[in-house]
Amino acid sequence: MKLLSQTNRIYLAFSLVIYLLTAVAFYQIIRFLIYDEVESRLNVEKRDFEAYVRSHNAWSSSPYFVENKIEVMPVPAQTARPEAFTDTLIRNRYDDELIPFRQLTFYAPIRGVMHRVEIRKSLIQTYRLIEVITITMVLFLGLLLLGTFWFQSRLSGRLWLPFYDTLSRLKRFDLRSSTPLYLQPSAITEFSELNEVMQKMAGKMQQDYRSLKEFTENASHEMQTPLALINARVEQLIQSEQLTKTQTNWIESIYQASRRMSRLNQGLLLLAKIENGQFDDVQHVDLTAELIQRLADMEEVLLHKQIVVKIIPGDAFKVRLPPSLADSLLTNLVSNAIRHNRQKGYIQVRSSGNQLSLSNTGPALTSDPATLFDRFKKEAGSHDSFGLGLAIVKQICDTYHLGLSYHYLQEVHTIYVGLLSPDTNMR
């Protein structure tokens, strides 16, 4: 969820709570004021009643008092209580509806006899007034809330516009480009400081990227040249007839170590180049056809180990990869399947439009399968391996949005390469 949406939700929820509390408080205040006015009028009529009784020393129906507004009845003296205001309902004799009244009950002696006096005043108009005031208040508060929310959304959108502009430019920013990151200056201090920091960071990252790229390129050239020279000279020494058997063994050990160092250097440099995104020639590659071709190229090795290749018919698995990395990915997968296979085993290829799997027979792993694709992780007894082959495969898959997984069941190892989503890799 976007920050602006989250902020608006919190603001809306807070405003609703405040407005509801305000509406309840306003309703109670209006009700209190109206009831206070009604009770004041009832007290006035009480004084009129007492004045009438004092002047006439009696009570009789008087045109001064409206029907159903006052009721006087004799009661025992011991039942007298303090005056009290209550709400009551009285049925209208004309339309047979219950009408709300506010009632004042008090006790007064008339000609020496205690009487209970109930003076009532209709609340129907008062209730209608409260309803009108309440509806009006709710409408105005609702309009105020909607207007404030709309204004807040528009204002927040304008205030956050520099941030979204910065975010958009950061998404389009490419470390490999020589163009520095440029962010529009903002009148808002926080966004202006953020842009300055981001521009400095981007500049430093571009500089570090160029330095690392130059290092890998220089290392690739400068290290391979002396290693190739060492290998060539060692090969000449091995062919010399003047060496003793011991010297020949020593030189052969040096030669093997030099070749291992060369392969290790190539593997590490390849990983660095992949991580730095130095492969730009991305193309559509049919990995299924390429994998079958790699197995055909390894026919002599397969025949030597008596490994049978099984191809399960299916749709071609096509992805977007630099051809050189596709070759490296498949070569490492095939080499791994052959190296860790058993004599008279088999290799099976299964392909679909979204996934490619390569299975091979072989003993169970002695290490944790979760570390299979880590760098320098190799099985015991794999002296010729550096543990970089599957790490290179994983780095290629991660960089080009391909899924990579491993499964083992009944002495069969299977590595799956698939699309993370139908459109992720094909863009």
Task: Write a structural description.
- GO terms for molecular function: phosphorelay sensor kinase activity.
- The chain has 427 residues and is an alpha+beta fold.
- The chain folds into three domains: 3-156, no CATH class; 176-278; 283-419, Heat Shock Protein 90.
- It has helices at 3-56, 124-159, 161-172, 189-238, 245-275, 287-297, 299-304, 323-339, 389-399; strands at 70-74, 84-91, 98-110, 113-122, 283-286, 308-312, 318-321, 346-351, 355-361, 402-409, 412-419.
- The strands form three sheets. It has a five-stranded mixed beta sheet, covered by helices on one side.
- A hairpin with a 6-residue loop joins strand 2 (84-91) and strand 3.
- Mean pLDDT is 81; it is low at 63-68.
Shape: elongated
- Classify the secondary structure makeup into a structural class: alpha+beta
Helix content: 40-55%
Low-pLDDT residue spans: 63-68
Approximate strand percentage = 15-25%
Report the count of strand segments: 11
| N to C succession of SSEs | HEEEEHHHHEHHEEHEEHEE
Supply Rg. 46 Å
Q: Compute the number of structural domains.
A: 3
Overall mean pLDDT stands at 81
Gap between N and C termini = 25 Å
Sheet with most strands: 5 strands, mixed
Order of strands, main sheet, comes to 6-8-9-11-10
- Number of helical runs? 9
